[in-house]
Amino acid sequence: MIGDTIGSSHTDTLLLFQQGQFASAKADSDSLQLAVTHATQEAGSGFEGTPIPYSPRTDDAVSLTLLACFFLSSIALSRGKKFLSQQVKDFVLHRERASIFDSSTAADMRYLLVLVLQTCVLAGITFFNYFHDTSPALMSHVSPLLLLGIYVGFCLAYFLLKWSLYMFLGWVFFDKNRTNMWLESYSALIYYAGFALFPFVLFLVYFDLSLTNLIIIGSIILIFAKILMFYKWIKLFFHQFSELFLLIVYFCALEIIPCLLLYQGMIRMNNILLIKF
């Protein structure tokens, strides 16, 4: 009798356990089915994630451009070091001699053209970062690669126009030797401005410098370059104290105003791109 009672108790316990397991499995199955149904409804309703904002440091095109600039400048420095150092000495000491363009080899001229192009590219990346901070809507409407190409093109056109203007004014007002000396000095400043811009652009892109620091450091580099230009102008074209005022006026007209026109031209181009796209 006692054995029958114990057996019946074990049977009831086993049935209850099996029922609990079945209820638990059914609850898990219902929960999984509910989760799948909910996910399917969300996917069907078109919910989108938050898009990641564009950043130049994550752009492969910017990284490849900086890497190419590094290799090209390294090659130019290793193979044209003597030529570049001679230009610095001539700029500082103001030596009267024949044109260095006439005595340079074709390889030297290729390296110098590469350095000029590098300076224009780095200046274009600087403007690209500046407008990325000041006009974020522009980056979402226009391809960043197109914008970078436009800014680099602006800087290259600025350099070529300045070069043509200097050649024309030198042909009109000065002798050939003095004009060539100024063009060589101007070219030397362009080359070494590229070397100064390279670490600045690296910090700008990969360390996310603030807009304030970008403007301050960029202005320091620009002002220092203009001071060196004015120094060379005094050495080349200043003969009497009465000519100093005219020299300052010409310097502002040829060096300060074109920079403002370049900036305004980029602003207008940005507005056109925003309207078109």
SSE diagram, text form:
Elements: H1 2-45, H2 60-79, H3 81-93, H4 100-103, H5 106-134, H6 136-141, H7 144-173, H8 176-206, H9 211-237, H10 244-276
Helix pairs in contact: 2-5, 5-7, 5-8, 5-9, 7-8, 7-10, 8-9, 9-10
User: What is the count of structural domains?
Assistant: 1
What does the largest sheet look like?
A: none
Mean pLDDT: 76
Principal-axis shape equals globular
Structure classification: mainly alpha
Helix content: over 70%
Query: Low-confidence segments, ≥5 residues, pLDDT <50?
Result: 1-30, 42-47
Strand fraction? under 5%
* Cα separation of the termini: 93 Å
Tell how many strands the DSSP assignment holds: 0
Summed up, the helix count is 10
Radius of gyration, taken over Cα atoms and rounded to an integer in Å: 34 Å
SSE pattern: HHHHHHHHHH
Structure description:
With 277 residues, the protein is mainly α. It has one domain (56-276). The chain has helices at residues 2-45, 60-79, 81-93, 100-103, 106-134, 136-141, 144-173, 176-206, 211-237, 244-276. The longest helix is centred in the N-terminal third of the chain and has 44 residues, at 2-45. The chain is globular, with a radius of gyration of 34 Å. The N and C termini lie far apart (93 Å). InterPro entries: DUF4271 (IPR025367). The chain crosses the membrane at residues 61-78, 111-131, 151-174, 186-207, 213-231, 243-263.
